[in-house]
From TrEMBL:
Listed InterPro entries: Aldolase_TIM, Biotin_BS, Biotin_lipoyl, Carboxylase_cons_dom, PCB-like, PYR_CT, Single_hybrid_motif
One cellular component (GO) term of this entry: cytoplasm
Keywords, ordered alphabetically: Biotin, Pyruvate
Protein name in the entry: Pyruvate carboxylase, beta chain
Ranges of residues in domain Pyruvate carboxyltransferase: 5-275
Lineage: Bacteria, Pseudomonadati, Spirochaetota, Spirochaetia, Winmispirales
GO terms under biological process: gluconeogenesis
Amino acid sequence: MKKRVHFMITAFRDGFQSVYGARVLTKDFLPAFEAAVQAGLTHFEIGGGARFQSLYFYCNEDAFQMMKTLREVAGPDVDLQTLARGVNVVGLDSQPRDVIKLHAKLFKKYGVSTIRNFDALNDVNNLIDSGRAIVEAGLRHEVVVTMMELPPGCEGAHTPEFYIDTLRQILDAGIPFDSVCFKDASGTSVPKKVHETIKGARKLLGDDVHLVFHSHETAGVSIAQYMAALEAGADQIDLSLAPVSGGTCQPDVLTMWHALRGTEFDLGIDPYKIMEVEEVFKECMADYFKPPEALAVEPRIPFSPMPGGALTANTQMLRDNGLMDKYPDIIKNMEEVVRRGGFATSVTPVSQFYFQQAFNNTLFGPWTKIAEGYGKMVLGYFGKTPVPPDPEIVKIAQEQLGLEPTTEKVVDINDRDPNKGIEAAKKMLQEAGLPVTEENIFIAATCKDKGVMFLKGEAKVNVRKIDRSKEGKEEKTASGAKVYAVTLGGKSYKVKVDGSTAVVNGRTYTVEVKEAEDAPASSGAPSGERAQVTAPLPGLVLRIPVQEGDHVEDGQEIIVLEAMKMENPIYAPKAGTVAAILVKQGDHVKAGDVLVEIE
C-alpha cells in the first residue's frame, strides 16, 4: 500500500512571484485556474505575500476581489491558502495588533481557508499575535519555521537543532496551529539537514500533526530535499505547474510524480490531466515576458541565499532601471550582508533587506548607505535575529538611521506608533477624500501611498508583456523602453533604449541621439540662478512634499523616489524657492532626469 503524498499547487501565488515578480492580471490566468480545479486539484496557494501588494502597485487590481473570484471558481470545498509574514502580514513593514487582526478577518471574508504564517527571523514573539488572530477569525493556521543554508564558514544557527528548538518555542508559547511547515524559500538547505529536521519535528509533534516541507529549485536540490522530507515523515510538499515550475519556482507536479515512481510514495494524480492543465496555463501566460534566470538553477545561491520569489523580482527591477549589469556584483556582495546581519532567514521581507543592502554596497560603496529595512533589522526593530549582528554594522546603522538598538517586542513598538495602525490609515483615507471601509483601511495601512493612489484611481498597469506586433524582436519594459535585436558588422547585440540610457548585452551606457544639424553646443550649466535637482538613480516618484512657490532650506526633503522597493529621499542642495516641479507622483524617472528647480 503506497503512502499518499498531499501537495499544494503554488503556481497561482509563489509561481507568479518567482517568475513574473507577482505582476500577473487575474483575467489572464483565470482559465488555467479553472482548468486546474476541473482536473481535480483541491489545494491552491492563491494570495498573500507579494500577491497582495503587487496587485495594487502594478496590476491596478483589488486583491480582495481577486480572492473572491477564485473562491467563486473553486467552489466551497477547495482549500485556498494564502501566505502571511507574521507581524508584517502582507508587506515589508511590520504592523500593530489592530492591523494584524484585520488581516485575518478580511482574508476570511474573501474566501481564504488557510493562512501559512511565518517569521523570517524565527522570532516566535512575531507569531503569537498573528497566529491567534488567524485562528480567532475561523481560519486554519499553518505555522512555519523558516530555513536556509548559511554561506560556507558561518555557524551558530540554521541547524536541525536550531529548527527544532524554534518549533519547541512555538509549542511553549501556546500558539494555536493546525499544521506545521518548514519553509526553505531559497532552496539551499542540504538534503541531509532537511531529513534530520523533519525527523526531529515528527518525534516532537507525534504522528497526528500535518507536517509540510516547502522549497524551490533555485539551487538545484529541491527534489532531493523533498525525497528526504518524505522519507523522514513529512505529509505534504509544495509543487507547481508549468510554465511557472522549476528554476526559481517549486518543482513541477509531473517532475515530482516521475521522481516518486517505483517508491512507496504516490501523488494520486492522473499525469495526463495535469499535462492538459499545463497546456492551458502556457497559453494563458504566452504574452508575459519570462526572464531567463527564472528557468535556471543558480549555482551561486548557496553562497548568497536569494529566494526564488525575490530573485526574479529583483533582476526585473534591475532590468527596468538599466542596472542589470550590476547583478553579479550585487549577488556576490549579498554574501557579506548575510554573514554580518544576524542570520535571519532569506525570505521576504529579510531577503529584500539583504538584496537592498547588497545593492547599496555595490552602487555607493561598502556600508556607505544603510538600507532602512536592513538597518532596522540589525537594530532589533523586526525582532530578535538568530545570532547577534556584527557590532560594527549595528553601530553604522545606529548612526545613519538615528535609532537606538532595541529588544522590545515588535507589536508593542508598533502599537504606540502614531503613523501605524487603523487610526493612521483612516486619517490617510480622510485626507484623500476616500471612503473609510475596512478594506480601504487595510489597503492604506499595508500599501501606504501607492495603496491610496490605487484607491484614487491613479494607479497604472505595469506588467511585463512581449510586444507581439514586432514578432518577438522588440519587448515592452515597465518604463516604456524598447528592446531591439541589432546586427552590426556580423555581430548580434541586444539593445534596450530608454531615453538617455542604452543597455547593450547587459552593459549600461549613457547616450544622446540628435539630428546633427539640430544639436547645439551645450555648456551643461543651469540656466539663470536656478539649481537643478536631478534623480541620482532610476525610480518611481512616490511623494512630493513641496509645492511650487514654497521656500525650502538647504537639506530639506523635496521628493521621495522609490527604487528597488526602497524609499530614497531627495534633498534640496541649497536654500531657496521651488521654482518648478518637473515631475508628478507616479512618474518613472531615469538617473539624471531633472526633478525640481530651486531659485
